[in-house]
Amino acid sequence: MDNDELSRTVKVVRSWLMEARDNVLRQIDSRLKVATKSSRSDLVTNIDRSNEQFIVNKIREFDSKAKILGEEGFGDQVTNSDGRVWIVDPIDGTMNFVKQRNHFAMMISLYINGDGVLGFIMDVMNNELLYGGPDFGVFLNSNQMTKANNLKLKDGLIGLSGPMVIHNDFNMQEIANTSLGMRVYGSAGIDMIAVLKGELVGYISYLKPWDFGAGRILAETIGLKITTIDGHQLGVLSSEPVLLATENAHHDILTIVKK
Ligand code: 2AM
Ligand code: CA
Ligand code: CA
Ligand code: CA
């Protein structure tokens, strides 16, 4: 994509997200219709659905030939990463949305032939939008972000998934112990924003493509490392235990995982 097309795409996706945010805020005090999916902690609400429908409609108008992978199923059946692929998580942190009406995000990303082009993560209640990509840079609202500070695990806070810590998957308790402390925010988008801003040295969770699609592009652009928990490259369409961290913390965590 040339610079003009990148700028135009960023501008239009930002406008969708601002409109989507207004739609969510207008309904924030309404009674939600909540349904469970795979388990009692895996929720979907009428707003996850209407928000995905809204974003998918916008993408179809803007980029009619592209494929769309949406968590709640309003997109297409995407079986490979050929061509233009948009990935949408309409509400990330649905449990937080339902129980707290806070600490949730919206995420959109664009991949072309498997390469990350643009990622967008919006912290809805905080009104923070992080966006950009390798040929654009990363911005927080209107301010360009600089390269991440390369802290070690022992010198920072680590964001973890609750179930992973409870079951001590991949030696998670030792990872938490080695850090200055663990945080469990419950939204991949909010956790990834914290890593991008340097508030956390890393984040580890079982994730789906719509959970890491945007964050991966932003993270790699500012020099953070994102792989599977055993250090392998992430596929665009795979579901994996994901490790996002500064280069140093990434190395420290892999050493503990492989013990
Ligand atoms: P979601 O709210 O969009 O489903 C903590 O739950 C984080 O893990 C959230 O970002 C959540 O995204 C994601 N997640 C992925 N798979 C999940 C599952 N089966 N149940 C709950 N959360 C899941
Ligand atoms: Ca979900
Ligand atoms: Ca999600
Ligand atoms: Ca979601």
Automatic annotation (TrEMBL):
EC number of the protein: 3.1.3.25
Cofactor names: Mg(2+)
Pfam families: Inositol_P
Keyword annotations of the record: Hydrolase, Magnesium, Metal-binding
Residues bound to Mg(2+): 71, 89, 91-92, 211
Single Gene Ontology MF annotation: inositol monophosphate 1-phosphatase activity
Gene Ontology annotations of biological process type: inositol metabolic process; signal transduction
PROSITE patterns membership: IMP_1 (PS00629)
Top-rank EC class of the record's enzyme: hydrolase
CDD domains: IMPase_like
Name by which UniProt lists this protein: Inositol-1-monophosphatase
